[in-house]
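Field guide to reading this record: the first block holds the primary sequence, the second block holds the structure written as discrete tokens, and the final block holds curator observations. Each block starts with its own label. This record concerns Major facilitator superfamily (MFS) profile domain-containing protein, catalogued under organism Monilinia vaccinii-corymbosi.

BLOCK 1 — SEQUENCE
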Amino acid sequence: MNMTGATEDPEPDKPNHMDYGRVDCEVAKYTSEILIHISEDENKRLKKLIDGRVLIIMVITYFIQALDKGTLAFTSIMGIQKETHLEGNQYSWLTTCIYLAILVIEYPTNWLIQRAPIAKYLGLNICIWSVVLSMHALCHNFEGLVIARTLLGIFEAACQPIFVVLSSMWYKRDEQAGVVIYWYMMNGAQQIAGGLLAYCFTLLKSGPLKSWQAIFVAYACFSFLWGVFILLWMPDSPMRAKCFSEADKKLMVERVRSNQTGMQNRKFRIEHVKDAFTDVQMYCYCLIAICTTLPTSGLGAFANIIITGFDFTVLQTQLLAMILGFYIIVVLLSSHYLVKKYNQNILVMTYRSLAQ
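BLOCK 2 — STRUCTURE
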């Protein structure tokens, strides 16, 4: 194979344990039976190409998704509760219903992710959830908001699992932690940018829309345009990436072979389900996820209301809420640094849990 920076494996007699009968037919077209050695310089060049086409999309998309989901928290002190006549625990149900929708729809959307063109499916979901987000501005009661929030959860549910698949599809195992950190820390970035943007919208004192309605409409318009951009720009996989040469596509497939996790597989295998349910680590990861998201999810929804309760102005509240965003980014970046330096995943996960 004549490719710059790529040669056949220096150990040609080394056995290749890949079972080609289980490899997706589309992946098999770009997979060589002979292991290809990719030089460090070539690997950096390929990663730079992928970052410019895939990572930047994941980072911005996750920022938009987090921003859209967090609109309720920002508008909670902008008059939405009064205008929609929310009483008692109705506001808390608006937060709960979106996660209930995600919980119910998670399996069907993961099933579709394995079978649909992944970038097209992501772009379509973004376009649909942007329309749903704009519908929030039309709601004038609790029932309407519940329907809108539930639909938002249904279509936003595809975002995070798609990014997990994309991270493993395009990146080597030792690169994946950093990639996930980059897009996941957009939770903190949206807390910072969202607070500033929300304050700007509170300055709207006239016009056909109230300030809380304008924020939903503005975010929805931007999200819709971004969804269309993804449909046109983002490749579904290395094999379908028309933006890369055939030689580069083969090398991109080759560089992730060592992951031994596969790139895509549209066939359901019951043995994978059995392995998952008998893996003790899977239950530990679930417990860690539950313990770390319980406090942060509740705080994110009620942070502005709590801060306002201490007699802070709207501007002061939005600025104080931004501190949480900076804190999230610092914790995530320091966690990534500690993992790379000491290679102690469990200890770093414990540190993250305590920090949160």
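BLOCK 3 — OBSERVATIONS
Residues 40-69 form the longest helix (30 residues).
The domain at 48-236+279-355 is CATH 1.20.1250.20 (Growth Hormone; Chain: A;).
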